[in-house]
């Protein structure tokens, strides 16, 4: 029979453009969020995090925006480079737990030179 | 620090055989996690240890799976007997205990059960 797998959302951008990757989270009690980057054949790598008492946080070339009203998280990557090509996951940690990270499905970002 | 170290990187085994995956967390971290990643289900938490004690094993699929952490620098995930549906990439991650701390992942073990 036909196998059904996770159909990752995909985003394809040109090198040098800005990328925006979106994530809808499920638990309104979540109070800590992380974006991870996973390159082929590697484990997820931490990019940036944000606490629920913030709505924006900036890192080097990356910005995370948090909208608690609609339970939405986004990752903005400025001047996207070929090395940014990867699967990006958002993860949430619920307020009732100090350890359990729940991961989203991931978004595949492809950067075209 | 070398980061979280997992071994082996790849494992191919026959159905019914015992498989043992190994993990060395980052020195000083007191939380350790085992995750499984598949195309069907994404990243799933299997078990969480804090200070070497299993705290939450609700994600362990069934009794064929077991995990131990005999000391702060070593953990194993064992599957006995293995089945083809166990084929996946298994990740170990470690962190400090705390609400706002990220987990650091190893490179993973790609398990194929034939």
Please summarize what this structure is:
The complex is a heterodimer of chains A (113) and B (114). Chain A is mainly β and 113 residues long.
Describe the structure.
The complex is a heterodimer of chains A (113) and B (114). By secondary structure, chain A is mainly beta. Helices cover 0% and strands 53% of the residues of chain A. Chain A has no helices and 10 strands. In chain A, the strands form 2 sheets. In chain A, strands 1, 3, 4, 8, 9 and 10 form a 6-stranded mixed β-sheet that branches. Chain A has a 4-stranded antiparallel β-sheet with strand order 2-7-6-5, with no helix packed on it. In chain A, strand 5 (56-58) and strand 6 form a beta hairpin. Chain B is mainly beta and 114 residues long. Chain B contains no helices and 11 strands. Chain B has strands at residues 5-7, 10-13, 19-24, 31-38, 42-50, 53-56, 65-71, 74-79, 88-95, 104-105, 109-113. In chain B, strands 2, 4, 5, 6, 9, 10 and 11 form a 7-stranded mixed β-sheet that branches. The model of chain B has no long low-confidence stretch (mean pLDDT 94). Chains A and B meet through strand 3, strand 4 and strand 9 of A and strand 5, strand 9 and strand 10 of B.
